[in-house]
Amino acid sequence: MSQSQDFTQLIARQNVAKPQCFVLFGATGDLAKRKIFPALFALFLDKKLPSRFCIIGLGRKPNTDEEFRKYVEDKILEFARLKGDSKSRREFVEKIFYLALDIDGDYSPLKKILGEKEPSFGTQENRTFYLAVAPSYFTIIPQKLKEIGLLHDKGCASFANIIIEKPFGTDLTSALALDLELKKILFEEQIYRIDHYLGKETVQNIFAFRFSNHFIDHLFTSEFVESVQIVAAEDLVVGDRVEFYDSVGCLRDFCQNHLMQVLAFIAMEAPSRNEAEFIHQEKSKVLRSIKKIDAIVRSQYEKGYINTDAVHGYRDDERVKNSNIDTFVGMRLFVDNFRWGGTPFYLFAGKALPRKYTEVNIVLKKAPFSLFPQSSQQNIISIQIQPKEGISIIIRTKVPAKTSLKPVKLDFYYDDYFSSESIPEAYETLIFNAMSEDRSLFTDRDELIASWELFDPIIQEWKKQNLEADEFYPAGSWPEIMKKVFLEGHYLVI
Ligand code: BG6
């Protein structure tokens, strides 16, 4: 493909999705109301939804179309980034139809409604099925869709793709088993595995920042980088999701997927084309270059204060009072390849920490010889994923009329260049890309398995061990134990 074709493809990515019917399993659930309908509505307002388009919402409870449309409108008003006006909301919800369906039961009502709506909306039998349901349904639904003939075969002019939420498995064995089951029903190109971090503008910008600024990417090697530090801190306790969270913990809820995807973008080589298959290959190669997790610690929050608010400890919740689950994970690993050999990557994620932020700090090496008095401050390229999105570079400059040096920041913040409304929510980007059959922002099978392979031995080990006394931290503070993963003499940004 020539450069101009590559460019045409990038532009095409920003246009209108293909004609289709969007079938949402779990349409009355939490994800649908908070994320999926608001995202679809934002796409509608941005004119990214095709004119030949309709939505079929599936849930257990009976509802008329009108009742369900009213519900969706209310949820848009409650949760959406863009709320539109009453006319636009009405136009949008008129594309929605509701069907009560027993997921384990007979799918002929779904076949029937598709048989009616597809010709009337001209959606060309293109279908996107979104499974916003419990993971235990990830194989049952595709199986039933296949049996009743709603999934197209390879080579068919129409598409039928499936979007799956995380978690994709709970360890290596279950992820492999789920993959095997799905592959009996679907081909890989039909499966869109969501990792909402890939939908974040700032995560995608890592790719653009590196590969469209050659001098920057030139610095991304062990020759110049002392360490890479990726931090995803949350200042909330687990709350209502505690029963689910207790079955996964921070390692599986956050590190195995989101953190590893951010790492892959930071460490990957430039793909030879800006296309899904080539991007996935490069990301997989990075994950496969990590031979093992070099050092890892876990910790669980106890009662404490977050921003002066008193909060309960994790085990203070009766439902998980004997839990050994990790609410914080810190680790060190090496990407054993030519570019990164010898540079430690430090990764941290957790709940009930002092503040919410996600950031990547690339700490650059000191000069081999210094003409100036030594300072502990090093050059850092800081990629701020959230909440204040931007990129900063910390350099040293001479203090006027003195011989001393002072660290200063070269800052780029999104706010200064783009309106906040122009930054889409992660789900808008991901749903639009899935509807456009662009898989570049979805996790492919090899990346997923490579990541599970790394963490599986740790998951198995942790299952056998109770938390020790030093594996707790007061909510609202950084766990002391994280220091164990740092190598002597490294500059730490946290
Ligand atoms: C989800 C996790 O995937 O990501 C949650 O299940 C976590 O536990 C959330 O809170 C964080 O997402 P974000 O976009 O707020 O960083």
Key phrases:
single chain; 494 residues; alpha/beta; Rossmann fold; 2 domains; nine-stranded mixed β-sheet; 36% helix; binds 6-O-phosphono-beta-D-glucopyranose
List the helices and strands and how they pair.
Layout lengths: L2 H10 L7 E6 L4 H16 L7 E7 L5 H15 L6 H8 L2 E5 L7 H14 L5 E5 L8 H8 L12 E5 L7 H14 L5 E3 L7 H11 L2 H6 L5 E9 L8 H26 L8 H14 L3 E10 L1 E3 L2 E3 L16 E7 L9 E7 L6 E8 L15 E7 L3 E9 L6 E9 H4 L8 H10 L9 H20 L7 E3 L20
Parallel strand pairs: 1-2, 1-4, 2-3, 4-5, 5-6, 7-12, 8-17
Antiparallel strand pairs: 7-13, 8-11, 9-10, 11-12, 13-14, 14-15, 15-16
Helix pairs in contact: 2-3, 2-13, 7-14, 10-11, 10-14, 11-14
Bound molecules: 6-O-phosphono-beta-D-glucopyranose.
Structure description:
The chain is α/β, with parallel strands linked by helices. The chain folds into two domains: 177 residues, Rossmann fold; 288 residues, 2-Layer Sandwich (Dihydrodipicolinate Reductase, domain 2), CATH 3.30.360.10. The protein is 36% helix and 21% strand. It has a nine-stranded mixed β-sheet. A six-stranded parallel β-sheet has the order 3-2-1-4-5-6. Helix 7 links the parallel strand 5 and strand 6. The N terminus is likely disordered. The protein binds 6-O-phosphono-beta-D-glucopyranose (BG6). 6-O-phosphono-beta-D-glucopyranose binds next to helix 10.
